[in-house]
Amino acid sequence: MATKNSVMVFVQQDDGIIAEVSIELISKARDLASRVNAPVSAVLMGNELRKAAESLIPYGVDLLYTAEHKGLAHYTPVPYTKVLVEIIKKHSPQIVLYGATTTGRDIAPRIASALRVGLTADCTDLQIGDYKSKGAQFQNVLYQIRPAFGGNIIATIVSPEKKPQMATVREGVMKMSSPDPSFKGQIIAEDVKLGPDDFPSEILERVKEEKSVNLKGAQVIVAGGVGVGSKENFDLILQLAHTLGGEVGASRAAVDAGYVSKDHQVGQTGTTVRPKLYIACGISGSVQHRAGMDESARIIAINTDPEAPIFQIANYGIVGDLKEVIPRFIKAFKAKV
Ligand SMILES: Cc1cc2nc3c(=O)[nH]c(=O)nc-3n(C[C@H](O)[C@H](O)[C@H](O)COP(=O)(O)OP(=O)(O)OC[C@H]3O[C@@H](n4cnc5c(N)ncnc54)[C@H](O)[C@@H]3O)c2cc1C
Predict the structure, then answer these.
(1) Residues forming a β-bridge with 92
(2) Which is deepest, 41, 75, 261, 297, by most CB within 10 Å?
(3) pLDDT confidence of 1, banded at 50, 70, 90?
């Protein structure tokens, strides 16, 4: 198999556990690669990677480059950048994708700068298409699509003249495909040459804070906006979420008002969610909020304003005061079970 011109994914791992966003990106890379008739490649760095590497192939990785070294066990920018730049130079992918995580946002600009190529941050969609500029025609260009100007426009950005074309992609926006155990890919161990000078910083201690909110994995989300009115009233949102066995979401305005912590924020600068049921209470439905939840399977909106934009995307709309509607909701649900 030709190794050049692949669609490459930088895979993030932590203690051998692959970040979900990397699998989402491999799934998207499969789709893009089929359009440009290229293989999917991935780069996995760390220490003792065999198990993690084997777990990635079934998601559709044709070529998995592994870089193993004790000093790569945990992400630090200098050695990771050096190794990834070498791998990209050696295998010349046409596209490289990174999760828009703390690590992805740190390493991707370093790679772009080292290779003198473009980078679009925080994409919410990626497509392949043609591009014409000043008489030049480019084929199979990566359309890097992201909200711009506060989410008021969706910008399509291209960087056709230099390879690789690179983008960071928000977590949760690409759909993760199911693994296919019969998929055959190659694991290729890269030669890692790192010396003491490549480790200007040392990790002395790692403190892990477990996430108390799991919006991404929730099947039911009850979200409150600034229309909830107060931190005390927000208890209604918690009660409904608890009754339905769901997670608590919020608009940014509700977070800014101090009703709930930022971990609960849904939207362009919060978490992107795709639950089976999303109940938006006292949320107007700004483009920035909708960007994070409009792919929910079912949306119920409770709002006093019949003109609220949230009703445009809601499957069921209730025009009313949430302080009256939510207790009735809870009562009705409890009476049914
Ligand atoms: C760059 C940028 C990024 C952003 N990112 C995000 C993001 O990630 N997530 C996000 O949510 N926002 C984001 N925002 C903010 C966004 O523009 C809106 O300001 C925010 O979503 C509004 O929140 P809201 O719907 O709670 O408040 P409002 O727009 O004020 O709406 C409150 C709603 O509550 C209704 N209401 C009032 N009282 C009641 C009641 N008693 N019962 C029922 N309904 C009631 C009102 O009719 C109204 O529709 C971003 C903005 C920018 C510029």
Answers:
(1) none
(2) 41
(3) low
Structure tokens at 63: 């070529």
- 175-199 burial, b for 16+ CB within 10 Å, e for fewer? ebbebeeeeebebeebebebeeebe
Class of domain 7-198: alpha beta
Ligand 1 centroid from CA 310, angstroms: 10
Q: What is the pTM of this model?
A: 0.83
Which tens digits make up the pLDDT trace of 114-172? 999 999 999 999 999 999 998 999 999 999 999 888 777 889 999 999 999 999 999 98
**Fold: same for 7-198 and 220-336:** yes
- The preferred substitution site among 289, 296, 311 for testing ligand 1, maximizing ligand atoms within 8 Å of CB, is 289
Class of the domain covering 220-336: alpha beta
For residues 18 and 141, the answer to whether their CB atoms sit within 8 Å is no
Tokens 């890379």, located at residue: 29
Task: Tell me if 101 sits within 8 A of 21, measured CB to CB.
Answer: yes
Domain limits, the chain = 7-198, 220-336
Tell me how far the alpha carbon of residue 282 lies from the centroid of ligand 1, in angstroms. 8
pLDDT at 148: 87
Structure tokens at 281: 């209470």
